[in-house]
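Example record used in the benchmark description.
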Amino acid sequence: MEALGERLKVMVKVFRREGQRVLHSERTTIHGADGMLMILQLAMAEVNKQHGREFKVALSDVLMAWKHLLLDKLHLPLPNCARMENYDLILEAYESFLKRSNTVDLIDILSMYTQLRLADSDPEEPVSPIQLFAFLSNNEEVLEFPDSAVPSTPSSKIRPCCSQVKIAVRRVFCSYLSLLVNVKNDMALALTLDVPSRALERQAFTDVKHAAQNNSTSLFLAVTSFVRIIQLGGRGYAPAESDPLRKHVKGLSDFVQFLDNLEELLGEIPDPSVCGARLVAAIRAVLVKGRSSGDAVYAVSEETTKELKERICQLYKIQKQIAKGSGTGISPARPKAHTVNHCTAYGGRDTVKVLLALLDEEALAPPSQNKADLLSEDQPVLSGAEGTCILNLFRSPELSSGSSPEPLKNRVQSRRDLLKPKPKEGVIRSQFACTYKDEELPLNRVLEFPSSSQMPTCVHPAPKPKNTPPVDKECSSDVVVKTKAKSTSECLNKEQSGVQQGAVLGPRSGNTQKRLAGPGIKKKTGTQAQGKGNKRKQVDSDQHEGSENEPPEKKQLTAVSVKMPGKNVSKALSKKKLIAGQGKLTSFFRV
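Model output (structure tokens):
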């Protein structure tokens, strides 16, 4: 009787041939036992997060839920134990992940087989539910039929037990090939995004996941759409500066560029065996780049590349024999009607056909013996500082609560940067610099005069008045007469200069302009001219007496009238003496 592996191959072959009748997509991929278990772990962690717990799950709970899931989907009787808590939510999250990734599991293929098979050519039931349960759970004791055999791989010979590194490297190879067939496979993108290292670690994957959730797309479409907008979009279509994916532009661009190179090989090389070998060689080149020949990843990559090349050639020969004999065999993914490059789309159909057969064989491989190695966080390091753990990738990084202080080194450096004086650029200021708003005084200027009470009131203090000795009345009367005459002559000279100065400055004032408009501008009396000169003289004296550092004080002037022929002259008895050079300085600023 046929081995269980061969009967599983028949079931998958019927699904590939007739799967278009029940599925909307033509490039649906299959998850094997290990893939189903990893998706179940993610679904349980997501349910725990929805209930306010951490995004993690114990290994014992995953194995218990794994048994319940297999028995429930295969419609087998459940053991006499209590039903799992939140099992309905876990099952819903599990099915939602499969649907979102355009993938199915082996149990779904078995349930679709009855309506897809041809009654005259295909067997009625190649695999029973209990046999599939035994295969997926890796429990040979459950097989209750007499002709049961040890579950074997679909290939002609059983692969020897591989190390954990080889399993991880082979999974990366198949994930890259799966993205060429099914771009919606989120599990494949999670396993290849940062392998080899592209500086796209946990934070980058979280940002991609959030972008995919906001746009309701797959992870791969979220990455490619962002990179295409950066490369081809104009300024109006560029993503916002606050977009978190902008921090990972280089790594995401390298990832998309590498997949574009694989797509070009897929469309340009018509021979599937040659094209498959080139694809595997390109993946091997990026994995071993920068590694020595003695590295474990280098040796495993060489071995895996050789095995996959040989298997692709064998599958292509088998499909050619089937096509010549009884039919087309596995139906390839047909190109869309709106495909831009029809030659590229049709040129890769035969290669896609071979790749689907290779991925199906990988899905039908026996499950891992050690579940702890598959689900643990300590995965083999293929690139970067740590291995690719699916649970850690899908777990959002914890935000800092602020309770733990910043490292001392960072705090000292930030304090030094704060205290470091900032260089000021030299500013060219014009003659109207007094109208600018002055900046803050430097510290040395502030310390010179800490308070306003200590600031000097005058740079050149006025001389002290001298005490004059007493004189007789007669002498004093003579002196007064002489001083009066002298002051009168001085006042007349100043009056004439003031009148001339007023005539020059007169047109600038509004009152003078009004007088100029009248007809009697030339017929001014001597009294009016005398009054104008006195006013101008009083204003000039007020301006001269003003100090530079203090406001002008009110001056009380007492005028004494001196009788002159035809004129009345007013004289200021008390006048403060100007300091040396102050009159010239005042006239300079007046001009």
